[in-house]
Specification:
Length: about 230
């Protein structure tokens, strides 16, 4: 049975659940990166702190502390990129031999399901993982560019190029963080997409649950309250 034959076996509710999954992933990402009504996300609030970091960087001597922070950020992207690659390999192995998945997931549904359907239900998980891997790799690369720019800033804070390069570094740092956050959201939705193995309704519930979790962390968490601008 070909992939197109397998797609024809999907019920309308499965298609709706899949569309909802994609809309939730795209919608929450757009909302996080585009402030509306003055309510900014944690990711957006961090932009100002990154700019403040680079302004403090100009006069900090020595600058070992800043290099250590940047190294920690790059280590985080490396870890998640490696983890995503391992998960992608595991997913490809299951697609090439879906029998183990059929044995395990078959207990979640009452009807006999063709193996091609299990493979199709793994595809969204793999696509999210690939998106996450690419985002983490690009984030790691941008943090590397950030390190080079930081090293190019003169030690003399009164040098005419200092502030310009510091602001460029802050912008590049924020772009790297944005890519990292996109990768994390893709990982979250990859986990939510595994609910499709249990059916369309669990996928709908999983998509909404992941979206609600991300929204709470970005817009209603204790961390966000701490990151709000300081009172004068």
């Amino acid at each position: 049975m070909t992939l197109l034959d397998g797609l024809s076996l999907l019920a309308p509710l499965d298609i709706f659940a899949l569309i909802l999954l994609v809309l939730c992933w795209y919608g929450i990402g757009w909302r996080i990166e585009h402030p509306m009504g003055g309510r900014r996300s944690v990711s957006n609030l961090m932009i100002a702190y990154r700019e403040d970091w680079m302004r403090e960087f100009l006069t900090r001597q020595p600058r070992i502390f800043d290099a250590t922070i940047l190294s920690m950020l790059r280590q985080g992207t490396t870890f998640f990129a490696s983890s995503s690659m391992i998960a992608i390999g595991g997913g490809l192995a299951l697609i090439s031999n879906p029998q183990p998945l059929s044995d395990v997931a078959g207990g979640l549904v009452s009807d006999q399901v063709p193996e091609i359907l299990w493979e199709i239900k793994l595809l969204p998980v793999l696509l999210f993982l690939v998106s996450a891997f690419l985002a983490f790799v690009w984030s790691h690369r941008q943090f590397g560019y950030c390190g080079v720019l930081m090293a190019s800033i003169p030690n003399d804070p009164d040098h005419p190029v200092c502030m310009t390069r510091a602001l460029k570094t802050a912008e590049l740092n924020s772009r790297a963080a944005r890519s990292f956050n996109r990768g994390m959201r893709s990982v979250y939705f990859a986990l939510g997409a595994t609910a499709w193995l249990a059916g369309a309704v669990p996928l709908i519930i999983g998509s909404l649950a992941v979206t609600a979790m991300i929204w709470r962390r970005e817009f209603a968490s204790g961390s966000r309250r701490l990151l709000l601008p300081d009172e004068p």
